Amino acid sequence: MSLTKLLVKKALDPNYLNLILFPTERCNFRCIYCYENYQMGGMTSEIVASIKKLISVRVPDLKKLEISWFGGEPLLKKDIIREISCHIIDLTQECSDLKYGANITTNGYFLDTITFQELVSLGINTYQISLDGDYEVHNQTRKRADGKGTFNTIWRNLLAIRDTDYPAHIILRVHFSPDTWTQLSPLIEMINTELIDDGRFYVYFKSISRLGGENDENLSIFSDQDEGKVIQILQEQVKNSQQLETVDINQYICYASKGNSLAIRANGDIIKCTVALDSPKNKIGHLNLDGTVEIERELFLPWLKGLEIGDQKIMACPWYNYVKNS
Protein backbone atom coordinates (compact mmCIF):
# COMPACT_ATOMS: atom_id res chain seq x y z
CA MET A 1 0.00 0.00 0.00
CA SER A 2 1.37 3.42 -0.98
CA LEU A 3 1.92 6.07 1.66
CA THR A 4 -0.89 8.20 0.22
CA LYS A 5 -3.36 5.31 0.32
CA LEU A 6 -2.30 4.56 3.88
CA LEU A 7 -2.90 8.19 4.89
CA VAL A 8 -6.32 8.15 3.22
CA LYS A 9 -7.20 4.96 5.06
CA LYS A 10 -6.22 6.57 8.37
CA ALA A 11 -8.28 9.66 7.53
CA LEU A 12 -11.38 7.46 7.34
CA ASP A 13 -10.55 5.07 10.19
CA PRO A 14 -13.64 4.72 12.45
CA ASN A 15 -11.40 3.64 15.33
CA TYR A 16 -9.77 7.09 15.49
CA LEU A 17 -11.44 10.35 16.50
CA ASN A 18 -10.02 13.86 16.54
CA LEU A 19 -12.12 16.48 18.29
CA ILE A 20 -11.06 20.11 17.93
CA LEU A 21 -12.61 21.96 20.85
CA PHE A 22 -13.15 25.71 21.27
CA PRO A 23 -13.55 26.24 25.04
CA THR A 24 -13.92 29.93 24.22
CA GLU A 25 -13.75 32.08 21.11
CA ARG A 26 -12.67 35.17 23.00
CA CYS A 27 -9.02 36.19 22.98
CA ASN A 28 -6.73 38.48 24.95
CA PHE A 29 -4.78 39.28 21.74
CA ARG A 30 -5.67 41.30 18.65
CA CYS A 31 -3.22 40.08 16.00
CA ILE A 32 -3.30 42.16 12.83
CA TYR A 33 -3.88 39.14 10.54
CA CYS A 34 -6.47 37.31 12.67
CA TYR A 35 -9.69 36.21 10.97
CA GLU A 36 -11.80 35.66 14.12
CA ASN A 37 -14.37 38.13 15.51
CA TYR A 38 -14.14 37.13 19.21
CA GLN A 39 -17.90 37.56 19.71
CA MET A 40 -18.71 34.08 20.95
CA GLY A 41 -17.80 33.55 24.58
CA GLY A 42 -17.01 30.37 26.48
CA MET A 43 -18.73 27.01 26.43
CA THR A 44 -21.67 26.72 28.78
CA SER A 45 -21.78 23.94 31.37
CA GLU A 46 -24.42 22.25 29.19
CA ILE A 47 -22.11 22.17 26.15
CA VAL A 48 -19.25 20.84 28.28
CA ALA A 49 -21.51 18.09 29.64
CA SER A 50 -22.60 17.23 26.09
CA ILE A 51 -19.00 16.87 24.94
CA LYS A 52 -18.26 14.58 27.86
CA LYS A 53 -21.29 12.45 26.95
CA LEU A 54 -20.21 12.31 23.31
CA ILE A 55 -16.73 11.15 24.28
CA SER A 56 -18.12 8.58 26.72
CA VAL A 57 -20.30 7.08 23.97
CA ARG A 58 -17.52 6.97 21.38
CA VAL A 59 -14.60 5.77 23.52
CA PRO A 60 -15.55 2.05 23.66
CA ASP A 61 -15.28 1.87 19.85
CA LEU A 62 -12.02 3.81 19.58
CA LYS A 63 -8.38 2.80 19.53
CA LYS A 64 -7.16 6.40 19.60
CA LEU A 65 -8.70 9.67 20.77
CA GLU A 66 -6.99 12.97 20.02
CA ILE A 67 -8.19 16.25 21.47
CA SER A 68 -7.07 19.56 19.95
CA TRP A 69 -7.68 22.67 22.05
CA PHE A 70 -8.25 25.79 19.97
CA GLY A 71 -9.90 29.21 20.24
CA GLY A 72 -9.89 32.17 20.69
CA GLU A 73 -7.33 31.68 23.40
CA PRO A 74 -8.13 28.33 25.04
CA LEU A 75 -6.22 29.11 28.25
CA LEU A 76 -8.82 31.75 29.07
CA LYS A 77 -10.96 28.74 30.01
CA LYS A 78 -8.56 26.44 31.81
CA ASP A 79 -11.44 25.14 33.93
CA ILE A 80 -13.13 23.68 30.84
CA ILE A 81 -9.88 22.14 29.61
CA ARG A 82 -9.40 20.62 33.04
CA GLU A 83 -12.94 19.23 33.32
CA ILE A 84 -13.03 17.54 29.91
CA SER A 85 -9.45 16.26 30.17
CA CYS A 86 -10.05 14.73 33.61
CA HIS A 87 -13.15 13.02 32.23
CA ILE A 88 -11.12 11.51 29.40
CA ILE A 89 -8.39 10.34 31.76
CA ASP A 90 -11.02 8.60 33.88
CA LEU A 91 -12.31 6.86 30.76
CA THR A 92 -8.82 5.67 29.83
CA GLN A 93 -8.68 3.85 33.15
CA GLU A 94 -11.72 1.85 32.06
CA CYS A 95 -10.55 1.35 28.46
CA SER A 96 -6.95 0.24 28.78
CA ASP A 97 -6.52 -0.23 25.02
CA LEU A 98 -7.41 3.38 24.25
CA LYS A 99 -4.56 5.67 23.22
CA TYR A 100 -5.19 9.28 24.21
CA GLY A 101 -3.25 12.35 23.18
CA ALA A 102 -3.95 16.06 23.19
CA ASN A 103 -2.50 19.26 21.78
CA ILE A 104 -3.16 22.95 22.22
CA THR A 105 -2.77 26.02 20.04
CA THR A 106 -2.12 28.92 22.42
CA ASN A 107 -0.63 32.38 22.19
CA GLY A 108 1.53 31.41 25.17
CA TYR A 109 0.69 34.45 27.28
CA PHE A 110 -0.85 32.42 30.11
CA LEU A 111 1.44 29.40 29.72
CA ASP A 112 3.39 29.80 32.95
CA THR A 113 5.11 26.78 34.48
CA ILE A 114 2.22 25.97 36.83
CA THR A 115 -0.20 25.91 33.91
CA PHE A 116 2.24 23.97 31.75
CA GLN A 117 2.75 21.35 34.45
CA GLU A 118 -1.00 20.89 34.86
CA LEU A 119 -1.61 20.63 31.12
CA VAL A 120 1.08 17.98 30.76
CA SER A 121 -0.49 16.03 33.62
CA LEU A 122 -3.80 16.21 31.71
CA GLY A 123 -2.24 14.52 28.68
CA ILE A 124 -1.68 17.67 26.64
CA ASN A 125 1.75 16.96 25.20
CA THR A 126 1.97 19.09 22.04
CA TYR A 127 1.98 22.90 22.07
CA GLN A 128 1.93 25.41 19.21
CA ILE A 129 2.93 28.95 20.14
CA SER A 130 3.30 31.79 17.65
CA LEU A 131 6.10 34.35 17.51
CA ASP A 132 6.42 37.04 14.86
CA GLY A 133 9.95 38.19 15.60
CA ASP A 134 11.87 39.63 18.51
CA TYR A 135 10.43 42.23 20.88
CA GLU A 136 10.18 45.05 18.34
CA VAL A 137 8.70 43.06 15.44
CA HIS A 138 6.39 40.78 17.44
CA ASN A 139 4.82 43.59 19.43
CA GLN A 140 3.75 45.34 16.23
CA THR A 141 1.63 42.42 15.04
CA ARG A 142 0.64 40.37 18.10
CA LYS A 143 -0.68 42.90 20.60
CA ARG A 144 -2.94 42.49 23.58
CA ALA A 145 -6.54 43.63 23.24
CA ASP A 146 -5.55 46.82 25.08
CA GLY A 147 -2.78 47.49 22.58
CA LYS A 148 0.14 46.54 24.83
CA GLY A 149 2.99 44.26 23.79
CA THR A 150 3.09 40.52 24.46
CA PHE A 151 6.58 39.32 23.58
CA ASN A 152 8.28 39.62 26.97
CA THR A 153 5.64 37.58 28.79
CA ILE A 154 5.64 34.83 26.17
CA TRP A 155 9.43 34.63 26.07
CA ARG A 156 9.64 34.55 29.86
CA ASN A 157 7.20 31.64 29.87
CA LEU A 158 9.22 29.76 27.25
CA LEU A 159 12.44 30.14 29.22
CA ALA A 160 10.68 28.97 32.39
CA ILE A 161 9.32 25.92 30.55
CA ARG A 162 12.82 25.21 29.29
CA ASP A 163 13.96 25.03 32.91
CA THR A 164 11.45 22.28 33.70
CA ASP A 165 11.78 18.62 32.79
CA TYR A 166 8.15 17.93 31.86
CA PRO A 167 7.92 16.00 28.57
CA ALA A 168 6.39 17.92 25.68
CA HIS A 169 6.64 18.74 21.98
CA ILE A 170 6.67 22.54 21.69
CA ILE A 171 6.32 24.06 18.23
CA LEU A 172 7.40 27.68 17.88
CA ARG A 173 5.38 28.87 14.90
CA VAL A 174 7.35 31.79 13.50
CA HIS A 175 5.25 34.01 11.24
CA PHE A 176 6.68 36.21 8.53
CA SER A 177 5.61 38.43 5.66
CA PRO A 178 7.39 40.28 2.84
CA ASP A 179 7.72 43.17 5.30
CA THR A 180 9.19 41.22 8.22
CA TRP A 181 11.10 38.16 7.06
CA THR A 182 14.42 39.99 6.86
CA GLN A 183 13.96 41.05 10.50
CA LEU A 184 13.73 37.53 11.93
CA SER A 185 17.45 36.95 12.49
CA PRO A 186 17.44 38.37 16.06
CA LEU A 187 14.61 36.03 17.08
CA ILE A 188 16.25 33.02 15.44
CA GLU A 189 19.48 33.82 17.28
CA MET A 190 17.58 33.99 20.57
CA ILE A 191 16.03 30.60 19.84
CA ASN A 192 19.42 29.17 18.86
CA THR A 193 20.99 30.46 22.07
CA GLU A 194 18.24 29.80 24.60
CA LEU A 195 15.94 27.04 23.36
CA ILE A 196 17.14 24.95 20.44
CA ASP A 197 19.44 22.70 22.50
CA ASP A 198 16.41 21.59 24.49
CA GLY A 199 15.00 18.71 22.46
CA ARG A 200 11.41 19.70 23.24
CA PHE A 201 11.45 22.88 21.14
CA TYR A 202 10.90 22.88 17.37
CA VAL A 203 10.74 25.76 14.89
CA TYR A 204 8.09 26.00 12.18
CA PHE A 205 8.18 28.89 9.71
CA LYS A 206 4.90 30.06 8.15
CA SER A 207 4.05 33.16 6.18
CA ILE A 208 0.90 35.05 7.09
CA SER A 209 -2.14 34.68 4.83
CA ARG A 210 -5.36 36.47 4.02
CA LEU A 211 -7.84 34.26 5.82
CA GLY A 212 -10.90 36.48 5.87
CA GLY A 213 -9.99 38.96 8.60
CA GLU A 214 -11.06 42.59 8.54
CA ASN A 215 -7.46 43.68 7.90
CA ASP A 216 -6.85 41.34 4.93
CA GLU A 217 -6.57 44.08 2.32
CA ASN A 218 -3.73 45.69 4.27
CA LEU A 219 -1.67 42.51 4.56
CA SER A 220 1.37 41.98 2.38
CA ILE A 221 1.69 38.28 1.51
CA PHE A 222 3.96 35.93 -0.43
CA SER A 223 3.08 33.70 -3.34
CA ASP A 224 3.39 29.99 -2.54
CA GLN A 225 6.59 29.77 -4.58
CA ASP A 226 8.25 32.74 -2.89
CA GLU A 227 7.14 31.53 0.53
CA GLY A 228 8.98 28.26 -0.04
CA LYS A 229 12.18 30.08 -0.97
CA VAL A 230 12.04 32.29 2.11
CA ILE A 231 11.34 29.34 4.39
CA GLN A 232 14.45 27.61 3.09
CA ILE A 233 16.55 30.71 3.81
CA LEU A 234 15.14 30.99 7.33
CA GLN A 235 15.55 27.30 8.08
CA GLU A 236 19.24 27.53 7.25
CA GLN A 237 19.65 29.99 10.13
CA VAL A 238 18.43 27.45 12.71
CA LYS A 239 21.56 25.81 14.07
CA ASN A 240 20.04 22.34 14.57
CA SER A 241 18.08 21.13 11.54
CA GLN A 242 16.72 18.25 13.64
CA GLN A 243 14.63 20.81 15.52
CA LEU A 244 12.82 22.06 12.43
CA GLU A 245 9.12 21.27 12.19
CA THR A 246 8.26 20.74 8.52
CA VAL A 247 5.27 19.63 6.48
CA ASP A 248 5.56 17.56 3.30
CA ILE A 249 2.71 19.09 1.31
CA ASN A 250 2.76 16.10 -1.05
CA GLN A 251 1.89 13.76 1.83
CA TYR A 252 -0.24 16.09 3.93
CA ILE A 253 -3.95 15.65 4.60
CA CYS A 254 -5.60 18.53 6.45
CA TYR A 255 -7.72 17.64 9.47
CA ALA A 256 -10.71 19.23 7.68
CA SER A 257 -10.40 16.66 4.88
CA LYS A 258 -10.63 13.75 7.29
CA GLY A 259 -13.85 11.90 7.97
CA ASN A 260 -12.82 11.23 11.56
CA SER A 261 -12.08 14.83 12.56
CA LEU A 262 -14.71 17.28 13.82
CA ALA A 263 -14.49 20.71 15.42
CA ILE A 264 -16.96 21.80 18.09
CA ARG A 265 -17.41 25.53 18.58
CA ALA A 266 -18.21 27.12 21.92
CA ASN A 267 -21.94 27.12 21.12
CA GLY A 268 -22.02 23.45 20.12
CA ASP A 269 -21.97 24.00 16.36
CA ILE A 270 -20.01 21.29 14.53
CA ILE A 271 -17.67 22.53 11.81
CA LYS A 272 -14.86 21.08 9.72
CA CYS A 273 -12.47 24.02 9.35
CA THR A 274 -11.09 26.29 12.07
CA VAL A 275 -10.55 29.12 9.58
CA ALA A 276 -13.87 29.53 7.74
CA LEU A 277 -15.77 29.93 11.01
CA ASP A 278 -18.70 31.94 9.69
CA SER A 279 -19.12 30.24 6.32
CA PRO A 280 -22.47 28.41 6.01
CA LYS A 281 -20.60 25.66 4.16
CA ASN A 282 -18.47 25.06 7.25
CA LYS A 283 -21.26 24.40 9.74
CA ILE A 284 -22.12 20.76 9.12
CA GLY A 285 -24.17 20.00 12.22
CA HIS A 286 -24.75 20.51 15.91
CA LEU A 287 -24.03 18.79 19.21
CA ASN A 288 -27.18 17.87 21.12
CA LEU A 289 -27.46 18.11 24.89
CA ASP A 290 -27.60 14.31 25.20
CA GLY A 291 -24.20 14.01 23.52
CA THR A 292 -25.50 12.87 20.15
CA VAL A 293 -24.54 14.76 17.01
CA GLU A 294 -26.65 15.81 14.06
CA ILE A 295 -24.61 15.92 10.86
CA GLU A 296 -26.01 17.17 7.55
CA ARG A 297 -24.66 14.72 5.00
CA GLU A 298 -24.88 17.15 2.08
CA LEU A 299 -22.69 19.63 3.97
CA PHE A 300 -20.27 17.03 5.34
CA LEU A 301 -19.40 15.10 2.17
CA PRO A 302 -17.91 18.01 0.14
CA TRP A 303 -15.15 18.29 2.75
CA LEU A 304 -14.09 14.73 1.87
CA LYS A 305 -13.89 15.46 -1.86
CA GLY A 306 -10.09 15.31 -1.89
CA LEU A 307 -10.13 11.82 -0.38
CA GLU A 308 -12.83 10.72 -2.80
CA ILE A 309 -11.02 11.75 -5.98
CA GLY A 310 -7.45 11.45 -4.71
CA ASP A 311 -6.59 15.11 -5.29
CA GLN A 312 -3.61 15.99 -3.10
CA LYS A 313 -4.16 19.75 -3.38
CA ILE A 314 -7.74 19.48 -2.15
CA MET A 315 -6.76 17.07 0.63
CA ALA A 316 -4.15 19.57 1.80
CA CYS A 317 -6.62 22.47 2.00
CA PRO A 318 -10.30 21.76 1.40
CA TRP A 319 -11.15 25.25 2.68
CA TYR A 320 -9.30 26.91 -0.19
CA ASN A 321 -10.88 24.69 -2.82
CA TYR A 322 -14.40 24.33 -1.38
CA VAL A 323 -15.12 27.56 0.47
CA LYS A 324 -12.80 30.31 -0.72
CA ASN A 325 -12.83 29.53 -4.44
CA SER A 326 -16.44 28.44 -4.89
UniProtKB/TrEMBL annotation:
Superkingdom, natural source: Bacteria
Gene3D superfamilies xref list: Aldolase class I
Record flagged with keyword Transport: no
Pfam families: Radical_SAM
Co-factor requirement: [4Fe-4S] cluster
The keyword ATP-binding is assigned to this record: no
GO molecular-function terms, A-Z: 4 iron, 4 sulfur cluster binding; catalytic activity; metal ion binding
InterPro entries named among the record's database cross-references: Aldolase_TIM (IPR013785), rSAM (IPR007197), rSAM_sf (IPR058240)
PANTHER family xref list: ARYLSULFATASE REGULATORY PROTEIN, FEMO COFACTOR BIOSYNTHESIS PROTEIN NIFB-RELATED
Keywords linked to the UniProt accession: 4Fe-4S, Iron, Iron-sulfur, Metal-binding, S-adenosyl-L-methionine
Name assigned to this protein: Radical SAM
Location of the Radical SAM core domain: 23-174
